[in-house]
Amino acid sequence: MISQVFTAEGGRDAGLVTGAEGTTVPYYASPSELNAYWQSVFPNKPIPSAILDHFSAPSGKEMNYQEKEHYWSLYSDRLTEGDAKIFHNWAHRIASEKLLYPETVFIAGSKINLYIDRAAALHNAYLRRDIAYSIPMSTKNFADIAAMFAPVSLSMARDMWSTLSSCEHPREVAGEQKACTTSLESMHEFSALALGTSNLRALSTSLDVPEEGISSSSQRYEVAEVRAITAKAAVNTVTCHSMNFPVALFYCHAVNPTRIYEVTLQREDVAAVPEPRTPAMVRALAVCHVNTSGFDPTLKYWVKLGLKPGEASVCHFLTRGDVLWAPTSAT
């Protein structure tokens, strides 16, 4: 049972939590602990970059300059449902015409405007397993959670509130399985439970994809090569999206069945002055949800294609911070 939480004053010291009989232990998992766990469940298998990026100690209470103007207060800054930007609402509604693609574009020679979202909180540290399990990640516990990272800027508080609200949001796709995880162990355990096997492979997109994402509104990309990561027959997978939070928190969900591709894209007119966030060559993982009959029919994606749910797959690229889990037998 956690009785009190302290925040590191800076540098690379982890925060401490007061436990039984007044003893103090770090509440962040150390790189050696994380590596030991990984080797115990995935011996001799490489650690995906999207997981490895979180194998670092936190930087204490460092904030961007603009965030120092106002700190969140329980008494003066009450947050409500209106302050939450629900992850599903944002990704699948507001920007769906940009971030989502039909599977038919993943053939050599296709040309697209490429949009890959930025990676959220890519370098935030994992909580220790015991600490993560002792803290219910809920908006009801928001004040206690915010106290762990005090002082919290108002913008950070809103991000935290939005993330917790997304974790609590009802499933939007029929049959979807979801969970928010704050430790490496819980992310692995949810994926194993959802997929019905502990014999898994974890994947992340190429380092070609910038942390800030890609947005090619006017310059197009040509698909140079498509490599199937999973078998041609659709398989079950879990995708874990990194979220805005002071520690590593992943929104993991399974909307199955899926097909997974590694897509290599070449920017057209390489000699021209490129837009920002448009590298000349990109290799990125793409997830295609095959059964879309339970998807929201009001998505702009369907309007754009002139189709209805169930008449086409829904595909999206993974960000630098996302982790994909698949049964080893399927890859």
UniProtKB/TrEMBL annotation:
Domain BURP: 100-328
Annotated InterPro entries: BURP (IPR044816), BURP_dom (IPR004873)
Protein name, UniProt field: BURP domain-containing protein
